[in-house]
Amino acid sequence: MLWDMIQQSQIHDAQSSAADAFRRADQVRRDVDRSQATIDALALSCAAMWELLSEKLGVADQELMAKIEEIDLRDGKLDGKMPSAKQECPDCTRNNNSKRVRCIYCGTVLPRPPF
Questions:
Q1: CB atoms < 10 A from the CB of 50, how many?
Q2: Is 85 within 8 Å of 113 (Cβ atoms)?
Q3: Cβ–Cβ under 8 Å, residues 78 and 71
Q4: Residue 89's closest CA among 68, 108, 71, 70?
Q5: CA distance 58 to 16
Q6: Which own/partner contact pairs does 77-85 have at CB distance under 8 Å and 24+ positions apart?
Q7: Residues 7, 21 within the same domain
Q8: Which of 2, 20, 89, 105 is the most buried (most CB within 10 A)?
């Protein structure tokens, strides 16, 4: 009888863990879908802007690629990522990543970077 109670408890725990894992996996799937939709929208916007620059101003593909490389190298690494600059908080004067909205030390809203 005691063994049956222990076994039933273990089965219940396993079922609960499986249900939690399913919920987490479902949330990750939704997050990935939202991320993919964002990526698709950004890619479409970039393509439209590039075509406009090319058509209206005659900017060549080589110029675009050179500018992409220049921006990528601003942090000293050619890694295909936007460089993250440091930004000083106007209140506590501590450095924050320029991608942050608020200072991680004091919570002050940080001014938006120019790029």
A1: 13
A2: yes
A3: no
A4: 108
A5: 61
A6: 85/113
A7: yes
A8: 89
Q: Do residues 56 and 108 share a domain?
A: no
**pLDDT single digits (tens) 48-74:** 999 999 999 999 999 999 999 998 887
73 token code pair = 């190298």
Decide if 88 contacts 104 (C-beta within 8 A).
no
Q: Measuring CA to CA, how many Å separate 74 from each of 17, 30, 46, 50?
A: 46, 34, 21, 22
| Cα dist from 34 to 26, 49, 102, whole Å | 12, 23, 24
Contact between 82 and 71 under an 8 Å Cβ cutoff? The reply is yes
**114 is in which domain, residue-wise?**
84-115
Contact (Cβ atoms closer than 8 angstroms) between residue 98 and residue 87: yes
Is pLDDT at 96 greater than 60 in this prediction?
Answer: yes
Q: What is the pTM of this model?
A: 0.57
